[in-house]
Amino acid sequence: MNIKGLDYNTEREKLVMPEYGREIQMMIDYCKALDNRRERQVCAETIVKTMKVMHPQATNTANLEQKLWNHLAIMSNFELDIDYPFEVTRKEEFLKRPQPLKYPMQQINKRHYGYLMESLFEKLKEMPEGADREELIRLTANQMKRSLFVWNRGTADEEKIASDLAQFTDGRVQLDLDEFRFEKIDSRDGEPIRNKKKKR
Length: 200
Known about the structure:
The chain has about 200 residues and is mainly alpha-helical.
């Protein structure tokens, strides 16, 4: 049985911009088929108004009108012969593929700590003694613990962290585990446990 209107969407022509629905696409196709240019212009303006009503949450979007006319041109396959109130994207620009982004490849000695941590190790090698260096050591060691905790799915050996920190700083940072206190980590999300004020 083949009844018009009862076919599946998967059997219909693919929509260029599905967020506007098939009815808007049908309106645009109808508009393209109009012979009278004035009628096409009025029809196109009506379609844009309908598109705007369909997305009331976008009323505060910058350049909304221009975007709607741009979408109209795209959905008409740039074949709608009307006077656009804005300059719309050209078909060549729309079809042009962007240049692939270059991904910065860096060799990482310890993947579970990551490249940024290795940058901190280098920073610690050259920092002079003082409160700033002690604070950076504290932050670095605790971040190493969190990274190791996530990598090992719930375990982080503090002795290993101290050993790694000494190794990666060429022995310039030596954690005294009898004095240094690591932050406690929440086993549910790997984040440090902060002191919370009790509700009265």
